[in-house]
């Protein structure tokens, strides 16, 4: 049987939908373009937030404690003589690394992720022409950058406080002694690596439990548990213990502060935690439904 086709009337031709030309649809942005846009947006959201204030001010507390100790008790501390810089730097670093640095990383990751949670913007964020990978990497890079800035500011405050003591308490000998810049640089590098493992854990926890209280509670509980487990033979495998292990890596040899110019075992474990947790977190994020 043959079918006969009839020409369409002008009204019928108007009512029929026009064929879609998919070549005219805009192409998805390149991955690097998505990452750049997401990072620019995250940086803009950071202004006037608690995360930024925490980054800028967190290093002041341990330095202030050490400064006051040396200001009032410096004569007793330096009674045996020698350069005051090794004692001052090691005391500041150990004060920060024991408890304050892990808690800083816990709060920093939670505060950065909470910017989206507080604004209930996650669903809107994933509806944008930006992939989940770009969002994941963007916030991670932002946290890593803030962590680096905080450590650099901490080191600058340590050196600045020592120079201030050289003016206020010249008898302590800060003026005549040489600042161990090489040791400070290596401690900065190793401390940064030591924080990466717990940073990754806290980042993934903050992404999946979109509440400020839960990630902070998990982090603080882990820090307290880690302190209780420091005598355990496998404590160096715990990511929350790595900053303390690095802070204790400085050695006083003949009144000189030294530190090994290589990563310690617990710092390699920290890098392993960082890589493994981020890969697992990203895979789970891709499979997660946004609600």
UniProtKB/TrEMBL annotation:
<feature type="transmembrane region" description="Helical">
    <location>
        <begin position="268"/>
        <end position="286"/>
    </location>
</feature>
<feature type="transmembrane region" description="Helical">
    <location>
        <begin position="212"/>
        <end position="232"/>
    </location>
</feature>
<keyword id="KW-1133">Transmembrane helix</keyword>
<feature type="transmembrane region" description="Helical">
    <location>
        <begin position="54"/>
        <end position="72"/>
    </location>
</feature>
<keyword id="KW-0812">Transmembrane</keyword>
<feature type="transmembrane region" description="Helical">
    <location>
        <begin position="136"/>
        <end position="164"/>
    </location>
</feature>
<dbReference type="Pfam" id="PF12730">
    <property type="entry name" value="ABC2_membrane_4"/>
</dbReference>
<keyword id="KW-0472">Membrane</keyword>
<feature type="transmembrane region" description="Helical">
    <location>
        <begin position="92"/>
        <end position="115"/>
    </location>
</feature>
<protein>
    <recommendedName>
        <fullName>ABC transporter permease</fullName>
    </recommendedName>
</protein>
